[in-house]
What does this fold into?
Amino acid sequence: MDELLAQFLIEGRELLQQASEDLLALEREGHSPARLDSAFRAVHTLKGSVGLFDLAPMGKALHAAEDVLDAVRGQRVDAGSGFLDPVLACLGACEAWLDAFERHGVLPPSAVEKGRQLEAALRGCMPGAEVPGLDGPVPALPTDWAAALAATQAEAVAAAQGAGMTVTALRYLPDADCFFLGDDPLALMRGLPELVALRIEPRSPWPPAAEFSPFTCNLMLEALSTAPEEEIRRVFRFVPDQITLVELPASAIATTTVALDGAGEASARVLRVDAARIDRLLDVVGEMMVAKNALASLAARVGAIDAGLGRALADNQAAMERLAGEMHRTVIGLRMVPLSQTFRRFPRLMRETAAELGKPIDFQIHGDEVEADKAVVEGLFQPLLHLLRNAVDHGIEAAPRRAAAAKPATGQVTLRASRRGDQILVMVADDGAGLDPAALRAAALRRGLLTPAAISALDDAAALDLVFAPGFSTASTVTALSGRGVGMDAVRTAVEDLGGRVSLSSVPGGGTTVQLVLPRATVVTTVLVIRVGEERFGIPIEAVVESLRLPVAMIQPIGGGEAFVSRGRTLPLLRLADLLGLPPRPRQGTVARLLVVRCGDQPVGIEVDGFSERMDLLLRPMSGLLSGMAGLSGSALMADGRVLLVLDVPELVG
Amino acid sequence: MTVVLEGDIIRLRGDCPVADAEALVARLQEAPGRAVDLTGAGMLHTAVVQVLLALQPQVVGPAGHPFVDRWIAPLLPMHRSG
It folds into this structure.
């Protein structure tokens, strides 16, 4: 993806999130000029960068939202006037548009109409027709345009700054009647030394061709120059009030952001790095771990020849081992992000859901500072969104039922996270009607999911587990929010794909709690893929000392088994087909393929039918029927969709 | 006369002062669809460039003036004749 677009998508989502949080805080805590300013700035900044892409409906809607927020700031619109709903609706639509734009490169066709509706709703909040004219307010944050201008000329700016030059951004807003005064703004621009970029934009949209008047200047000129500021000012000395100069910081187009902590004392430098680079680093560290494994056997061999040298090498190897392990942990740590990155999106969505269903909800989040791997944190969004919407839709009862049960009118939905060693625990709890095991049994029977005998054998916990069965839904009505065929089975699948488990508990009449247990980090295992007959299996590469092709003639029968000589040592040879209980097959050809693997201290040769590639896989623990099988350390989904079983060789050899 | 109509093409000749903006607008408004040829043009006044930006006629280049060719032409719907 284009780097500028990628950056825009990241920042756009952050700005939308920031504005949403500010507005929700306003609603919760009452009027706050700081929050209002922050929301305004976020919307304003986003509107500025939207113009770089083909996102006109979004730009217009944001412009209207900006005007509303500005009017509230200027107290031309009453803060209690219900401006929040249309602005939040606009932010929600923008978020969806960014998703669509990222996926398809264009906005959906409906965006124009949707944008118009949003704009109309927003303009409806404004007193009278407040339309900024030709001499309307100049955007409040001059550095935004400078950054946007720099972004369009990123290469030229980077080249100039790389050569040690200072780049200055110039914005020149000629008077509307400047032509009558004899000004020629472009002639001034032409006189500007060291021009790097020139942009000319209309200050207000062009009228239809027939109404265009050539006598009024409706232009805004922006330029980048590497000339000293005083030289630039000299060129514009007759119109000093019409220009703005901003010196571009060296990092204007880099992606480094500096965050100040709440106290404003210590400052933390935050470097934003593409996740793919971290993953590449992780790959390299993984390869280093494997390369380091070879060092141990090398030290042992050297030790057999020269004990002193061997010890020195072994000491070195131990140090390398420790450092490589520390490096691996550090790199894994780089991928750790707080759950708040996902959780912070929920308050606005829950507000929408509650409004749509007409159920007053008090939504609480706890423990969002807990950290987990980026993949886990991001992967939690969809399943949690589904669970939270379910809680409002199916959990929290309608007002009359709550009143009849003597519950408070406002439903309680809680999202709580905590850390438990290498795992995180995430709970979604509601104080709604709860699930009735008897009703679940009846529904399963009606849908023919299980035989009557099997159903009556289920205890209450197992009956609750029925909601995770594919195609099972207890909702009597299908709302727009949930129950559209994406049920709890999808939640379970999504959580298991992250290496986690999901379970549910419920108190009839008292509420439902769904509990997710997830690994903090998804652990990538490098495996060597081997073949036995037509089957393929993975063996973790840490276990493999070396792979060999050995003439069959060198394999000696010893006792009941076989052995071979490698590097002066006699090693036992086992056939993987035998270990796995597969039907025995005679050796093919004159060369045997085998892996030397470590089992405790003793290397063992394992004969296979073929080797193929090395792969980095997300290993999932065995579940269900396979969980009791010895000799398997897990399974992984390969790129082609097949499941690869990964063997636990020491356990297999026994 | 620096704004010259030849068939459906408006040719700008030499440096175009502010007064040419009005003439250019008139030529473009009386028959939309006319192209503007900059190959013989010198430096253009801002008001002339504004006409090209606002009315978006097809522009034939390369522009005769290096500043126009380098900085203004990229902002216009340009057709380069050679």
Remarks:
- Residues 275-305 of chain A form the longest helix (31 residues).
- The interface with chain B takes residues 174, 179, 183-187, 189-190, 195, 198-200, 202, 206-207, 209-210, 212, 214-215, 217-219 of chain A (CB under 8 Å).
- Chain A has five domains: 3-123, 142-247, 275-335, 338-435+474-519, 524-653.
- The radius of gyration of chain A is 33 Å.
